[in-house]
Design goal:
The protein is 40% helix and 13% strand. By secondary structure, it is of the alpha/beta class. Strand 14 (160-162) and strand 15 (167-169) form a beta hairpin. The longest helix is centred in the last third of the chain and has 34 residues, at 197-230.
Length: 260
């Protein structure tokens, strides 16, 4: 018991730059208090003392603002940062070294008793603030759930899920930031650079349109040059329509800034 408590305190000191001492973490971090209540409640639940487990869980919710069903399985070194409003359902499973921020719900979408209704988080998962993970699926190891995401299907290991409903992005989108996140051990709030697939798609379309305009401009300039070299007795633009665009006017950079 005390070994796990020391692990929890050490992981909070590692991941939260605001934590200044072990004593401060032990006395002032509701996420740690919620886990302490949960371990006691889970022990009662596993022993068949369901009412007592629920009552201890209720006390933990009252003191910490974090509701963890006594039937949920929580791994080692889990950090619930801030924690107010976090809800973890009965059949949820949280792997080792996960980080969960305030307002997160690990909820269920099924009403069948005894079924696996709540999600399973693998090891090292980060769940951003106010995100909802709903259903009996698995979020793979080292995956990230972006803030305010609504996740309704499985997330592969190492991937990022953002949006409502959540869309899954490959973890290798931003190699430089992934390297920095690996050095730090985790990525705060599950945020990564370039993690909005809609914005990325819009930027790709803008880049494609800009490339097309560049090619068309080059073609008209080539036609204008050829026309001038072949007809010395006529203006160089004789074969070029008056509305032909021979200079680039597409503001790709300005449009890209709008979707950042």
């Amino acid at each position: 018991m005390f070994k796990r408590l020391r692990e929890d305190i050490a992981c909070i000191l590692e991941r939260d730059p605001a934590a200044r001492s072990g004593f401060e973490v032990l006395t002032c971090y509701p996420g740690l208090h919620a886990l302490m209540f949960h371990r006691l409640a889970h022990g009662c639940w596993a022993s068949g003392l369901h009412w007592l487990g629920r009552f201890i869980s209720h006390l933990g919710r009252f003191f910490s603002g974090i509701e963890i069903h006594p039937g949920a399985k929580i791994g080692r070194r889990v950090f619930i940062d801030h924690g107010m409003g976090v809800v973890i359902g009965e059949t949820a499973e949280v792997g080792d070294d996960c980080t969960i921020y305030q307002g997160v719900t690990l909820g269920g979408t099924s009403l069948w008793k005894g079924a696996k209704r709540h999600p399973t988080l693998g090891h090292g998962v980060i769940v951003g603030a106010n995100s909802q993970v709903l259903g009996g699926f698995t979020v793979g190891d080292n995956a990230r759930i972006g803030s305010n995401a609504v996740v309704l299907k499985a997330v592969p290991a190492g991937a990022t899920a953002v949006g409502n409903p959540a869309r899954v992005i490959d973890a290798q989108v931003d190699a430089q930031r992934e390297e920095t996140a690996a050095k730090l051990g985790f990525s705060a709030y599950g945020i990564t650079q370039g993690d909005d697939p809609v914005a990325q798609a819009m930027k790709s379309l803008i880049d494609h349109a800009a490339a097309q305009e560049h090619q068309i401009t080059m073609l008209w300039q080539a036609i204008e040059t050829l026309s001038g070299s072949q007809r010395t007795d006529a203006p160089s633009t004789a074969c070029v329509p008056p509305d032909a665009q021979t200079t680039e006017q597409f503001d790709a950079a300005g449009l890209s800034r709008l979707v950042k």
